[in-house]
Amino acid sequence: MLKYLLTLTASLALSFTSLAAPPGPAARRAIAQVLATQTAAWNRGDIPGFMAGYWHSDSLVFIGKKGLTYGWQPTLDNYRKSYPDATQMGQLDFSNLRINLLAAGVAQVVGRWHLARPGAAAGDLQGHFLLIFRRIDGAWVVVADHSS
Fold first, then answer.
1. Sequence spans of domains, the chain
2. Distance between CA 47 and CA 66 in Å, rounded?
3. d(Cα 44, Cα 89) in Å, to the nearest integer?
4. Distance between CA 118 and CA 11 in Å, rounded?
5. Given a cut of 90, is residue 19 above it in pLDDT?
6. Domain 23-147 carries which CATH code?
7. What is the pLDDT of residues 41-88, one digit of tens each?
8. In contact, 107 and 27? CB cutoff 8 Å
9. Vertex 61, ends 84 and 115: CA angle to 5°?
């Protein structure tokens, strides 16, 4: 009888765990939502709102055409310097997104960015990016950004 109960308990446990949604799709949706929230903040001229998707830490790393920047505040300062007004900021669009989970709580996002800037003398800007996201304190945040 004990063997029967153990088998039944194990079978039920396996059945319930197989019904649970795998973490991958939920994580991908959450990361896509962070990117959508960042896009919306950027497009209303809200750089601090855009930066809410980044890890608020001195260990954040941003790699761009001007080299390495470490830390959330220096990254925010660089964005403000490079995009001083709504005309320079333009309208942001992300495309060709590939979200890959690397491990529990770690993901890589590769994609393309485009800034439509009809009023800017320099015109539109575009490039590609690679982001590393980590789930920290229950939230997905960018911990490393390489944009070119």
1. 23-147
2. 19
3. 9
4. 62
5. no
6. 3.10.450.50
7. 999 999 999 999 999 999 999 999 999 999 999 999 999 999 999 999
8. yes
9. 40
Structure tokens at 140: 């997905």
d(CA 60, CA 58): 6
* Residue indicated by tokens 């310097």: 81
User: Are the CB atoms for 125 and 114 separated by under 8 Å?
Assistant: yes
Q: How far apart are CA 134 and CA 145, in angstroms?
A: 12
pLDDT at 71: 99
Q: How far apart are CA 17 and CA 131, in angstroms?
A: 31
DSSP state of 76: H
Q: What are phi and psi of 73, to 5 degrees?
A: -65, -45
Alpha helices in the chain (DSSP H): 2-19, 23-43, 47-51, 72-82, 86-89
- 128: how many CB neighbours lie within 10 A of its CB? 12
Contacts of 130 (CB under 8 A, 6+ apart): 108, 109, 110, 145, 146
